[in-house]
Amino acid sequence: MHFFIQELVNGLTQGSLYALIALGYSMVYGVLKLLNFAHGDLYMVGAFVGYFVIQWFGGSTALSIPVPLLLLFMFIAAGGGVGMLGVAIERFAYRPLRDAPRIAPLITALGVSFLLENTMLLLFGASYRDYNTSAFISFNIGIHIGPLNIDLVQLMVIGLSVLLMIGLTLFVARTKLGRQMRAVSADREAAEMLGIDVDYTIAVTFFIGSALAGIAGVMDGLAYNNIYTLMGFIAGLKAFTAAVVGGIGSIPGAMLGGLLIGIAESMVTGYISSTYTNLIVFGILIAMMLVRPTGLLGKVPLQKV
Amino acid sequence: VTVEPESSDVSVEQKQDPSIGVDEWVARTTQRREYAPGRRGEAQRLFERVGWWPKLAVAAAFGAIVPFLLTNNFQLQVGINALLLATLALGLNISVGWAGLLDLGYIAFYGFGAYGFALLSSNQLNPPAGIHFAAYVSLPIIAVAAACLGLIVGLPSRRLIGDYLAILTLFFGEAFVEFTNNVAPSKLGGPNGIVSIDPIRGFGHQLISNKSYFWFLLALLVLTAAALHLLDTSRTGRAWRAVREDPLAAGMMTIPVNRVKLMAFSFGAVVAALAGTVFAAQQVNVFPTDFDTPFLILIYAALILGGAGSIGGAILGGLLLSVMLDGFLRSPTEAGYLFYGVILLTLIVKLRPWRKLVAVLAATALFGFAVHAIVEAISKSAVAGQTSSGWISSALHNWVVVPSNPTTAGNIGFVVLLCLVIALIQVKGRTRTILLVPTLYLAACVWEGVLVAQPSITRQLLIGAILIVMMNARPQGLLGSKRVEVV
């Protein structure tokens, strides 16, 4: 039982990261009908921003400011920085193609992803970098009952993700901007006719989605320590899976899908073998898409002639 | 044939711009294009009168004499890679360019062919004797198996369209890499791959030298191109294009949409698998990493560059991209030719009139000397860096700023360069011309300082840039048709 709970918590930790990235995918897909392949790389950039914030304040072993303040700075820097990067990508790579055939932005997104990855590779090299979280957040704080080990970072990751998701849901459901987002995602032209600033709304969507990915990147660094320039691709792919399993374009779907994928992955690793984790996750996706292409919570789109 | 005005109220319409009456406008432009004046028009008409197969034959003959012109084995290898990429782009063109199905798992078919050939022509299965089929046995087996695999992978395309299909096939491609990496290491070799594969052999001969592989691949490329041309102009080809434009309407016109889609997947898979067999035989060993996503993106870049939907475009894109990236980027001097050549060419095409071009170039040169002098006056070590070898670099040595430790400065320069390029896209008119000067200069500095020293990363950056630039500037590619729509 301890083992099961342990794996469940591990899965929830990983799953909330996937969910945060998947939210960005889903939101962008909602407003632009575009699969933003570069999204996973934004997550990687976020992890690097967090790392450099730690270095800025003296490195993990000799911090010059209190830990909560450091965490706050990391999240703000990663969220804000990556959010701005996302807005810039939308502005320069995707906006000129908004009315182009669907294949054009899709392939541009592949190109942006490739460019981001290799820019980071050029700037920071291929070597792993270590957050060394245990140096400033002790592993001993947390829940430790027998073989069950849930440390503070895991609790923080899960808690913060839940908070962010609740915040996002409220934002989309209650605020004026959220309503505009829903309007743009329902019908862009009609939204424009009703006086909604579509460009601005799309930029905000990109900012929020990218910021979530950036924050997820920092949390990944805190929870798993190792970051490297190519980590974005596979994480992006998993988050993609999550978004699709939940129903792409649906925000609660993305959260649900992320958690499901995370838990499935950790259960497979725990009970079967880590060799087959990715194969099984991909298998889930393929089966899911064949049985229910619109995902768990997605709606079947009307086909207009 | 001139379009005669017909009715009485035409006199009113004629005063208006011809683009108002679209039909008339189309007729006039087509006419203008068909009857271009002077020698150029004559040559064009002559070129159009020649059938497709003489053109292909001439191109093939040119290709066949290429190995005699190449001086070393490295160049020959570049040639082989280029032919492989062209063949792969040709196969991808079937599903992406013609049928409009975004297949991101295409690379798996290539891997399937390579692994299939490796298993059928090495000691891997059934040790210690192994299986050693002749090529005329193994190639058909692989082709048929690949066609079946294409059918299976294509099956979801009956239900899924557009982005969903793209994701599913992407996962298929990833699953292939995972599969070869992890499943049955004793059979598939895991990360160590399969080594010492037989050459292609049959009828008492075998292909050993790189030259023979070059010719074999050329023959494969030419035959594929011919077959695909026939297919393209056939009923099936028209059905593909109809499905690409509008599957619903195509279905209404009694085209069997699903069957046509599956055919596209299958044909593409066979072409990719055949390319894979030659790759395996020529490389002698295969590894899972040979079939990873970056290579898929390279194939896409080739197809996009050449123009999706056109056979000539796919071949041209593959050859061009491969020769550019493999042939030129390896040595600093040749990479310099490529870099400065492309920049100059772009400037010549884009900057009109020529006075502006001269002004920009002169201003860049002066700007460079000025910056170099200022930086040198501030700090000697900031310009002491070693530029790469080759005459271009030594000629530019006293012009570009390369610090003695170029990494940090180069990184900052690279980021600033990206920002400048983005700014350049946004501004218009005179500001753009002025901004071009520092951008060009900074590009040269970053190139000499960082990029030349990192050819593999530069290569990937170029691929990414090609995809973005082509999609924004010329989505139809160099030779493509105007419109390729994925539904």
Report on the architecture of this protein.
The complex is a heterodimer of chains A (305) and B (487). Chain A has 305 residues and is mainly alpha-helical. Chain A is 72% helix and 4% strand. Chain A has one domain. In chain A, helix 1 packs across helix 9 (231-246), helix 2 packs across helix 9 (231-246) and helix 5 packs antiparallel against helix 8 (198-224). The longest helix of chain A has 31 residues, at 2-32. Chain A starts with a helix and ends in a 14-residue tail after the last helix. In chain B, strand 3 (201-202) and strand 4 form a beta hairpin. In chain B, strands 1-2 form a two-stranded antiparallel ribbon. A two-stranded antiparallel ribbon of chain B has the order 3-4. Chain B has 487 residues and is mostly helical. In chain B, helix 7 crosses helix 13. The two termini of chain B are 37 Å apart. Chain B contains 21 helices and four strands.
Helix and strand layout, with pairings?
The complex is a heterodimer of chains A (305) and B (487).
Chain A: H1 2-32, H2 39-56, H3 67-94, H4 103-124, E1 129-130, E2 142-145, E3 148-151, H5 152-174, H6 176-186, H7 188-193, H8 198-224, E4 226-227, H9 231-246, H10 251-272, H11 277-291
Antiparallel strand pairs in A: 1-4, 2-3
Helix pairs in contact in A: 1-5, 1-6, 1-8, 1-9, 1-10, 2-3, 2-4, 2-8, 2-9, 3-8, 5-6, 5-8, 6-8, 9-10, 9-11, 10-11
Chain B: H1 10-14, H2 22-34, H3 38-49, H4 52-69, H5 73-98, H6 106-120, E1 121-122, E2 131-132, H7 135-154, H8 162-182, H9 185-188, E3 201-202, E4 205-206, H10 210-232, H11 235-245, H12 247-252, H13 257-283, H14 293-306, H15 311-328, H16 332-350, H17 354-378, H18 391-396, H19 406-426, H20 429-449, H21 455-473
Antiparallel strand pairs in B: 1-2, 3-4
Helix pairs in contact in B: 4-10, 5-10, 5-13, 5-14, 5-15, 6-7, 6-8, 6-13, 7-13, 10-13, 11-13, 14-15, 14-21, 17-20, 19-20
